[in-house]
């Protein structure tokens, strides 16, 4: 199924045409029928001569209901532009055409209606006027068909024209990333919440778990319907009604979207390319109304270059967007459509003044240059691609030198080089200030350089002259030994002066960093909080081995007496001997262990 939207000036016969083609009156409300004026969106379905199914979205033509018109055309790629022969081209015809162009709709047809109410010469003049206005637009080559909905004149031509338009249209893209912009919400008796919309991006099926984008509210697909028929699965391009479980109809509204969890970015800031409506000048800075999908949203706009070709939009609410999405910008004060925009980047990084220089580049280059780091797992969401296409894009970026692939990141080579240089400068300064330290802890260095440890580790992979070991970054040539420093020699002497009753570390007056460095280099040994000189423990080992050789079995008291120490220091020494296999505990006694040399 393909979905086609009507467009055109008020009272030019859009609803009558849909009724004649489908047998369904798209005007749903009594006031619409009473006044003969379409106020909100209407929906109908038809099967063409080729067997193709078409869903129609009938939109209001009155300027007061332009918001509703925009809600109807935001997710379609084909349109029927309707012009009445009785009046010809009118202001809303022009605005609707511009809106279709801004949204990238270039397929469909033009229907000149009410042909039986005027003579043939007037019909010919209306056709010429239409062709004149279409010249130079995206619909310039669109076929023009004449009809009269009441008499049935030309309806077969309209059907054949629709078939031809569908034949020319490319296949509906299916990236496995469904998005349903909701244009209608209601509560159905016995079913609960039902939403409708035009499905794009991928299929949905019964029991699918979806989320209301922006809010993150989880829902389940309890029922699916298309063209009045229940379905178990529906593909992109179709009009669909979805019965939702897990949400009340008051908790969802037109303009929100249903998507699969974790497939879409939901930014509030986007960089865009701007296309002004002829004769209009979009504001360089200020508040605008932004129409995307089926919704209208508040936003602020800021031009990013002198010519206004690029801009940054800050949205009042988070929306599920992807590069390539098109939106319409309207001036809320004047009620005028001023521009269309195409999304180029989501949650852009870096300074706004630098953005314009990269936004004209191809998609992958633009994303890597703008963010510096793009996780490969996140590339499908950020680029708006299915996983295979995203993987192909990543390979191309690496092959062409626009990115380096490191630890699951696509990294801008310039960004990685700069981070390496900053890290090298910081590490060098640290070694100069603290020559006995092994280096800088990775987390500390990451905070200093305003990045995160994972990215820093990736940046430093195979970095010339730097090493990352046990969470510490150091110059590859730096050993950081303290053994020969006067401070270390003096500190170790304090511990060897009373080897089996050493001072507490805090009593030595030495900086904690120096004590840690001596422990690291093996000059001192920390045994459960008690620090001994390494020489002292070696001497204790020798005495205990001699004692074991003489007696075979010893006690803690025997070790205490042999060392001339106290129980306070003997217990950690015996624990150290046990852990190192010199002794082995048997009850309250110690016997030779596997490393004692006595077995």
Q: In terms of topology, how is this protein built?
A:
Blueprint lengths: L1 E7 L5 H9 L7 H6 L6 E6 L5 E6 L7 H8 L4 E7 L6 H12 L4 E7 L6 H15 L9 E3 L8 H14 L10 E10 L3 E9 L3 E2 L3 E4 L4 E10 L2 E3 L1 E2 L4 E7 L11 E3 L9 E8 L8 E8 L2 E9 L6 E6 L10 E6 L4 E11 L5 H8 L3 H9 L1 E3 L3 H5 L3 H13 L4 E3 L2 E3 L1 H21 L6 E2 H7 L4 H8 L5 E4 L2 E4 L10 H11 L15 H9 L3 E4 L2 E4 H18 L4 H8 L3 H13 L3 E4 L2 E4 L7
Parallel strand pairs: 1-3, 1-4, 4-5, 5-6
Antiparallel strand pairs: 2-3, 7-8, 7-15, 8-14, 9-13, 10-11, 10-15, 11-12, 11-14, 16-19, 16-21, 17-18, 17-20, 18-19, 20-21, 22-24, 23-24, 25-27, 26-27, 28-29, 30-31
Helix pairs in contact: 12-13, 16-17, 17-18
Q: Write the CATH architecture name of the largest domain.
A: 3-Layer(aba) Sandwich
Whole-number mean pLDDT: 91
Question: Might you state the CATH topology name of the largest domain?
Answer: Rossmann fold
DSSP helical segment count: 18
Q: Give the count of structural domains.
A: 5
By helix and strand content, what is the structural category? alpha+beta
Query: How far from one another are the termini?
Result: 85 Å
Beta-strand percent range: 25-35%
Let me know the number of strands.
Answer: 31
Q: Which regions are unreliable across 5 or more consecutive residues at pLDDT < 50?
A: none
CATH class of the largest domain: Alpha Beta
